Here is the input.
Amino acid sequence: MMNKIIPVFFFAVLLSASCNKGKDTKQDVRFVSPANFPAPKYNFNSNPVTTAGFELGRKLFYETQLSRDNSTSCGSCHISFSAFTHHGHSVSHGIDNKLGTRNAPPVMNMAWSDEFMWDGGINQLDMLPIAPIENPVEMDLEFAIAVQKIKNNAAYPPLFKSAFGSSEITGPKLLQALSQFMNMLISANSKYDKWKRGENGITLSTDELEGLQLFQQKCSSCHSTDLFTDNKFHNNGIKNSFSTDSGRAHITQLPQDVGKFKTPSVRNLKYTPPYMHDGSFSTLAQVLEHYNSGIKNSATLDTLLNQNGVLGIPLSVQEQQKIIAFLNTLNDEGFIKDQRFAEQ
Ligand code: HEC
Ligand code: HEC
Here is the structure.
């Protein structure tokens, strides 16, 4: 008798343990700053991440009703499997098949930034979604009307109630929920991160380590910290003339800012081609050859890329390959496959 009961009992315990485990991982949403990152810049006191707020933010991120004709969501251009970029598009593609002018950057590690867009035109994450919602080539809808459409959708009042304690739907709450979702899009579990934090005996190969050293010597003054960006604006010589897109000068109107763009992170490059603000390079080999031999001069070219009239950063083919080997340690497969971030 006992012999029969025990296995059944054990099976039930195992089953319930694994169910609870599944439930916990789904529900456990809280912001934790990775040990190898600097302090976040987002003010979490005014908008802490909660599970209900994150889930509401996720639903809004994938909500096509935020566009004029219900065709386009944030997730249309920021796709999880391409690290939240617009896969395969050199410039973004929005409502009515309209083309934008810039490459959609990855939405990752946003909590550490206070300069958004390629030109830093927005400096608060909570304000950012208004720009794509109202942009005529992105979602093309007045923000007040977008909020009204969400108010009229019966699915939302209970979700706002769980997230914010009241079923009243307002623009600021909608924006805070989107920030909660975006703040959780943390990519910090690449091979490099695990090695840096000394996890699970992860080691880097000789090429990867030499590539890291070269990167530190030649690239990390702009692609700095473990976020791999200084969050500043530089002209890295991809053009001689910036008449079609003046970059930072578009915001500041200053001649010294012409052709300067925000330094992008170099995380997850495997998933985010093409590269640069206009998607002008499709492979890392092209990017490295650009720094080696393709730098184009202009009045605002960064001084690091113009050493006494010698343009660029001299890199042998071998050195370029080692840097690429290092860059490939920054791909975070767990991030792009994290089911919490996908459309539910
Ligand atoms: C039609 C495509 C498209 C849609 C839809 C879209 N975006 Fe973007 N997103 C872009 C492009 C392109 C940029 C870069 C814009 C620039 O630099 O001027 C961008 C930039 C961003 C950034 C800044 C990233 C950085 O590193 O500075 C964030 C955050 C972002 N979008 C979030 C959103 C959210 C939230 C929504 C929905 C409300 C949204 N996007 C809708 C294409 C899109
Ligand atoms: C002077 C600052 C600076 C230096 C030095 C620098 N970069 Fe960059 N990098 C930038 C800026 C700014 C951009 C974006 C330019 C644009 O889009 O117009 C960029 C873009 C990139 C991109 C494209 C990323 C994307 O998502 O589009 C890669 C890859 C890259 N750099 C790698 C490197 C490597 C490797 C080195 C060293 C050999 C290096 N960078 C040195 C400033 C710099």
